[in-house]
Write a structure and sequence with these properties.
By secondary structure, this protein is of the alpha/beta class. It has 2 domains: 119 residues, no CATH class; 145 residues, no CATH class. The chain is 29% helix and 27% strand. Strands 1, 2, 3, 4, 5, 6, 7, 8 and 9 form a 9-stranded mixed sheet that branches. A hairpin with a 5-residue loop joins strand 5 and strand 6. Helix 5 runs antiparallel to helix 6. The longest helix is centred in the last third of the chain and has 20 residues. The protein starts with a strand and ends in an 8-residue tail after the last helix.
Length: 274
Amino acid sequence: MIVIKTMTESQDAAIEAGAKPVKVTIRYEERGGVYGRSPRKETVKTTIPSWDGDHPTIVGKDDYFIAPDGLIYEAVSTIRDGETYAFFHLGWRDKREAVREHYDENYSHSVIINGFVSRPAPTLYAVMSGGMVEIKKRLPEHYDAKQMKNVFGPHAGEWYVPLAHLDLFRSVWREYMRNDDGINVPLHEDFKIPNDEHVRAALETNAQSARWGVDCGVYAPSVDEMLAANMLIETVREVRAQSYSDSMPMVWAGRIADAYARIVEAQKDAVVLG
């Protein structure tokens, strides 16, 4: 069965901005199918805007491409001779429904850039923790055993800001190092952003949809908060290492409470731009 897809409004906009329309065939195959049955397959034919040439790339654990229209994209799949391959999980769904959901999420707003079929990137956040900064696409979360699911919420010792505002972390880290007995360890950035005005403008646009706030962990901390977070984390580590029962010395509980209170007080000096 062959399914025909047409371009969406966002893809039409890319064509108007200078991208070229390219006919693409997506070869879908079921992953994790039923034992003893051949994997289900589907073919989707569509048209995807293509940006010729090499374009600036933010290089990290994942790569992000900056298109001439100022949007940032993340790779979905490679393309060769007008064909790309994708996989879907069927579960209890109808095959067409599974393929449609995958297509809508990954290809309905995609372009071809730097040799990849790529979809628009969500808000990109710089995340600082333990002297290192990396890029993440999701806000902090943790597993809630009562709700039996992941819930959003900030982590002690971990801070987020939109990637466009990375300099906030660089600034507070330099100040933090000056308070650490003269030790000057540079903040390690686990990615490389091209020094390009077009890239900076694209990051500013990407940051417009970012969430800000102490309640969701998106802010730049003060040095006092960083020191208090270190104290809390070290105390919890000691408790885990030395506790052999479900109880703990009250002095340890007091140290944890004191460190948490210091964090809350220091958050009054947090930098929140949104």
